[in-house]
Design brief:
- This protein is an alpha+beta fold.
- It is built from 4 helices and 8 strands, in the order ββαββαβαβαββ.
- Helix 2 crosses helix 4 (153-168).
- Residues 1-7 have low confidence and may be disordered.
């Protein structure tokens, strides 16, 4: 019996295109268009690239979310160094934006958007419609925190659900932004400035 050929998976350093592994994610990369806090296109690609290990953990999250009647939407994943520099030029506040690295001297790395080991995500309903969350994406106020005292009950419940299924699948949340998670089990690798994926 003839079997279907396996789909070829491209890889760029440690990065893979997430939809090559699983097509059920909703991809809405905010910085690939102008619908973001800068009003500018920050990076020129619209496909979602992540670390190969992080991709596996996201698929696990997707499965957990789907079992509960939700889908995963990704707002940001791999982000080139030059994009990080653009953010820092606009908002020099490391509560919300990490300082861009000097790769000529940097020797120790951590899980970051710049190596595809960090993601900004949310939940939708099973039809892909947004559900109430604690704040809008890239809200640079206290509303971005899950413990913000004025968060509505439904918004807090949905944010807490997202945090629970992300942490159960190997991610660590950032307390200052309910949507931001680090892949705590990925071995940190050097940051990248790839902007073209051929």
């Amino acid at each position: 019996m003839e079997t279907e050929p396996k789909k070829k998976m491209n890889q760029w350093k440690n990065l893979v295109r997430l939809t090559d592994l699983d097509g059920d994610f909703l991809i809405d990369l905010k910085y690939a268009g102008k619908d973001n806090f800068t009003g500018c296109i920050i990076y020129p690609f619209t496909d979602c690239y992540v670390d190969i290990h992080t991709a596996g953990q996201l698929i696990e999250v997707r499965d957990r979310a789907k079992a509960l009647g939700f889908r995963m939407k990704i707002w940001d994943a791999y982000r080139p160094i030059r994009a990080q520099q653009k953010f820092w030029d606009l908002i020099q506040d490391d509560t919300f934006v990490a300082h861009p690295p000097d790769m000529s001297v940097l020797k120790i790395f951590r899980n970051s958007h710049m190596n595809g080991q960090c993601v900004d995500v949310t939940l939708t309903d099973i039809d892909g419609q947004d559900i109430p969350m604690p704040s809008d994406f890239d809200d640079f106020t206290g509303r971005a925190r899950l413990d913000w005292p004025h968060t509505g009950k439904e918004e807090r419940r949905n944010g807490e659900l997202l945090r629970r299924i992300m942490t159960e699948s190997g991610f660590t949340p950032y307390d200052g932004e309910w949507w931001h998670f680090y892949d705590r089990n990925a071995n940190p690798v050097p940051y990248l400035d790839i902007v073209t994926f051929d």
